[in-house]
Each structure stands twice: as C-alpha cells, then as structure tokens.
Write a structure and sequence with these properties.
This protein is mainly alpha-helical. Helices cover 73% and strands 0% of the residues. Helix 2 packs across helix 3. The longest helix is centred in the middle third of the chain and has 30 residues. It starts with 15 loop residues before the first helix and ends with a helix.
Length: 73
Amino acid sequence: MGASNGSPKPLGPRTSAMLREDIERTRAELATSVSELREEVAFVADWREWVRRHPYTCVGAAFAVGYLLGSRR
C-alpha cells in the first residue's frame, strides 16, 4: 500500500515505532472520517430538513399519499 495520507515514504526500513505511529495516525483519521460521515447521514436523513428545503414537494407528496390511502376504501 503506500503512504496514502500524503506523508512521504521513509527511505530506509521502518521501525516498529514508526509503524505504530502510522497506525495511530490512520486510526485518528478514520475516527474523524466516520464521525463526519455520521453527521452527514443524520443531516440527509432528517425529514425536517427535507421539509425545510422542499416544502411544496413534501406537501404535494403528503397529499398524494393521503389521497391514495383514502381512495382505497
């Protein structure tokens, strides 16, 4: 794999301390990425935000669903 985090590759053999440091840095980056992803998914899935952004579309969809459910009788 290479140094995907943008840091240059060391020229000589890597020590166990260097490997541990890389692992810890990768863990921290992964934790940050997962946290950001969670926040974004929560924002996108929030129905209140959908209504705020697209009020007429949501009212139209609610009307259509209500009409379809009401006309089934």
